[in-house]
Design a protein that fits this description.
With 300 residues, the protein is α/β, with parallel strands linked by helices. It is built from 9 helices and 10 strands. Helix 2 runs parallel beside helix 9, helix 3 packs across helix 4 and helix 5 crosses helix 7. It is globular and about 60 Å long.
Length: 300
Amino acid sequence: MSLPPQAGLPQAFFLEAADGGQRFCLYHAPRGDRPLGRVLYLHPFAEELNCTRRVVAAQARALAKAGYAVLQIDLLGCGDSSGDFADATWDAWLADALAAHRWLAARAGGPIWLWGLRAGALLATQLASRLLPSPAEGVREGAGEGGGEPVHLLLWQPVASGQQLLQQFLRLHSASQWLGASPGDAPAPAQALAQGQTVHIAGYALSPTLAQGLGLARLTPPAPPAVTSRLVWLELSSAQPPTLGASADRAVAAWRAAGWQVQAQAVAGPAFWQTVDGGDAPALIDATLAALTPAAAPMP
């Protein structure tokens, strides 16, 4: 189901999901007759989705203006999509991402970029593994679920480990206990999850199934790609000049060793995913455009 498009605004519609539900999507049509590429955006976890909407919207508009077709999707139980957060599983989110890729592939042409922010980077990496042809398949037509095409990754402030992110999220429960918002005699969230119970943290009902899937996710390079694929890794830094951290340097080295063409950069800007009014990130938007379209002429 599509909502009526309005001039200058992205097209809002609901994508039919494999489970019979509907996923809210925003499609930013590219400016120009021939798209420079397709960009599928995968959002971060829990409240970080709401905190990052403004910066992501600005980036999506900028990419569309530069000639890219951009699709944003709210995953199961998130944003305006059907279902509750308690219904979500990591596998269901991966299925949503795959469905969104199929929709975008049918709508526009050009190289495909998977753009993941924070935990969305974990999902983007796993989707790339599904889409890329394996070395055994080579580059024959139809190889991999991506049809043998290269798949490129644009990762913003990527989370290296789903387990690390999960632990950070669970610590919010302790903070709420200190503030008196949660009963002090309640079992620890990790213990409750291990017993198969859903836990309620910061307004989100986290199921054991989603916690397990998130906890197992790692930012591991897909098997050496049979086709040339690019990774653009961008982080925000408060240092002057902005610099990547040691952990990012190690991760980037692993991707290069796996055969990916890597461009990694830190830019100045706030940690906008941490607060609802986290500020703007113009340097991040400019760096993204420069990385994806280094030789592109400005659009009129």
